[in-house]
Amino acid sequence: MLIDAHTHLFEIKKYEISSDITPVVAGYSPSSNKKAVELARSKGYPFTLGIAPQTAIKDDISKLDDWTKFIENNEPNAIGEVGLDYKWAQTMEDVEKQRKVFKRMIELSDKMKLPLVIHSRNNPVENKVPKNAIDEIIQTLKGKKILMHFFSGTEEQAVEIVKNGGYISVTHLHSKERRKVINNIRLDRLVLESDSPYVGKTPETIRDAVTYIAEIKGIDAEEVAAKTTENAKRFFRF
Ligand SMILES: [Zn+2]
After folding, report:
1. Which residue in 23, 171, 195, 210 has its CB near the most CB atoms, within 10 A?
2. How far, in Å, from the CA of 81 to the mean position of ligand 1?
3. What angle (nearest 5°) sits at the alpha carbon of residue 178, between those of residues 235 and 78?
4. Ligand 1 is an ion; residues with CB less than 5 A from it
């Protein structure tokens, strides 16, 4: 049994999920939140609802009250994906929109007593937009139950997040920094995700994430599968 902690399953066409994978279906905008609820309810899958930073920039955030109400009425397993993305933000106005929406999502998670699934990316270039979205997230969310989806930060940031009670989500993609992160984070704080169809094409790619973690930690793939499943169930409460 494996759990894909983050997939936009409703956006994958002509795909039937394997019986040994449970997907956590993730919304990120008003329209995708609706699709996530419909699919997850019809199949009995866990799901998360949220307004992501890209939506905060692109959509008309004067509707934030309605979007928030929809999430509250549909009782997700977590609020997500939400966060800050300073790679996408082009201006300080974009940054302020993201912060406003994010603050609202944090308040909602407090009100509903739900954990947060976080999207965050740093700004790779020198411009007027702040650089470090991940540090800002760590500071803002101290003491809250969070899962860092498709984590792209450093080993030090990962250690800090886990010290604060957070979880790190791992895709099948390899990199030097990810290897260090996986090596330094306890297995009981790691979960698997495909972020399909955007990162992995389908949830099947979490099988490669299992192999990757097992190889780095020098343990059996079965242990990685069992532990990450346990972790995801604990985090999403199902
Ligand atoms: Zn995603």
Report:
1. 23
2. 7
3. 20
4. 195
